[in-house]
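Consider the following assembly input.
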Amino acid sequence: MEITAVIEVTENCNLNCTFCLRPSFKKSSMNTERLEKIVSHLINNSENRIDFIWHGGEPLFLGLNFYKNVIKFQKKHNKRGIIIKNNVQTNGLLLNDKLIKFFEKNSFAIGTSIQGTKEIHDSSRIDKGGNPTYDKLISKISLLREKPSSIMVLTKETLGKEEKIYKETKKYVRGMKISEYFPGGLNPGKNKTLEKKYSVMPSPEEYGKSMIKFYEIWKKDSNPIELKPITDIIKSFVIGKSGGCLYSQEVCNLSIIGIKSNGDFYTCIRGYPDKKFLIGNINEEPLKKLKRRGLNDLKKRQDILRKKDCKNCEFWAYCNGGCPQESFKIYGNLKHKSFYCRGRKMLFKKIREDLKLKNDEF
Amino acid sequence: MGDLKINSIKNPNLRKTIQEAIKLKKSKKDLLRSYSEAYQGE
């Protein structure tokens, strides 16, 4: 088993994003003893390669010494010489010369979040005092020798601004991922905070139109950047199946796992805090349970979707019904296809048309 | 995959991406891995 481990080293964050999926400012963070156990367990249960994604909250709250320990423990426990990759997903504001030098020396890939344009970013990715953060982020990531990759969440606020977003973001990144938005928690309308968060969620049609605009802009670019998930979708049409997160349940239940700072292992970091998705704690050898649990969950959901929501869907192989966690967070169970289904189909159809493939060739 | 005729694809960005995918398919590299390589959380 090869694993990508998304490790939430702390829930604490220095930002207070208006649309945050998992708002929490708990100060607790991963201690050194637990870090070593987790690193050792992951390395010992991976076949040839392990990808660590250091995540939060804001993972840079833990400072340089934490990441020095990461490298120390990885070297100590990697007795079989497997491939180890490190990524850190940060809002960028705590980057400094020492951290950057260390990350570059140890080949950490840096991922950050740029929420479209300065205007949109400054109205949504604000600090705890409500202050804008775009200029500070740009000044920090400009210090990096290699441009970072970035994530933008597609919301109602980004609609209609696709050209400006692509052009502005491209100046600072080597690749951009457009993420589908869904708020955590259930019952919007009963909770004012949630209601506000749902209000920025685009309709499936708005989502589809916006993704097609991004796709068209990318196609016309003479020096394009990697634009996920669009470039992955194109590849999946060639290869015959999808592997991208949110498009393949094989990824989310079998190879990408989420780990909390207390050592709890989840089938996906989005599954927290529901115990349904808890695999076990680091003290219980959780990876031995993962394979069995993952396969069961995957099969059940696929069976249900193929009989109902996704019956006879021509794009099943490229979509797989979407993210199971999205279904759970919105509807309270895993039985539903992606909220963005109609929008996804609009994009799939457009790409299929451009590839000059006929319907019956799928 | 259906009958994809790469010569009929005129857009250079689409062509390049298709060529990358063909290489990936031929290499038999772990598909999930190659997709998740660039995964950077949310």
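The longest helix of chain A spans residues 287-307. Ask yourself how this observation constrains the way the partners meet.
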